[in-house]
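Bit of a strange request maybe. I'm writing a small parser for structure token strings and I need a real example to test against, not something I typed by hand. Could someone generate the tokens for this chain?
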Amino acid sequence: MIEPLQISLDLACPAAHAFRVYTERASAWFPVEHTMTRVPGLAVVFEPHVGGRILERTPDGTESDWGTVTAWEPPGRLAYEWFIATGRDHATHVEIRFVALAPDRTRMEIEHTGWDRLGAHGQPWRDTNLGGWNGVLPSFKASAEAATD
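Reply from user aminoacidic:
Good idea to test on real output. This should exercise your parser:
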């Protein structure tokens, strides 16, 4: 069995704010070098409902799907099938919980699973995704803590 990725991040902001920054303001914090097209000015979109798409949209309107929302429970929980750079047949599963520790403190708990279904490609893809999380989470943290709603 390939171990799930489990990441936790403490944030100096309310849980509802962290959820909104993650889902509604991803274009502001998601590093362009971690996108499919790497086009400056692209939008990162979370369609806010179960079945909604997670995608990037370039300024010329080109769209690249990254995932599909499987749970939308603001402000505490978000889950999605994740297939950026692969395809739906190689989707993994991400679940994120925004746990209020205090009115202005939140713990973001991420569990990224589904590596076993990828066979021999599972462990290398898990390692690649760990690098991806390590590349995007500092930017998210800075954005979430910069200002609250």
